[in-house]
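Cast an eye over this sequence plus tokens and walk me through the fold:

***
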Amino acid sequence: MKRERILIVEDELDMLDLIDFNLTRKGYITAGSLDGIDAVKKIRHFKPDLVVLDLMLPEMDGWKFCKSLRQKKSDVPIVMLTAKAMPEDRMAGFEIGADDYITKPFNVAELILRIERLLKRKSVTET
């Protein structure tokens, strides 16, 4: 059975560790990036099946990272996980290519369920 790979892009180390711990416990292979520039490099080498993406990042923010990924015609699911909770932020996230948008604070179990849903949908469309 294939173990899905998830890239976590989050500049708060405690938050990154929390997400990483819970996803690893569920059997996912994870990698973390603390900024958008590093995430761009990891995308090429790690080849994730899904990205959990914060928006307020140093170097390259999550908006630019998402746009860059979608301009490369990547269909990797993106879950935006951010403190930006205004309706216009959510709309902007979906407009630039997010597959899901979760605001902080968040429930870890809900995040995992949403990730599982997106990965299941992705595997169905690939077969």
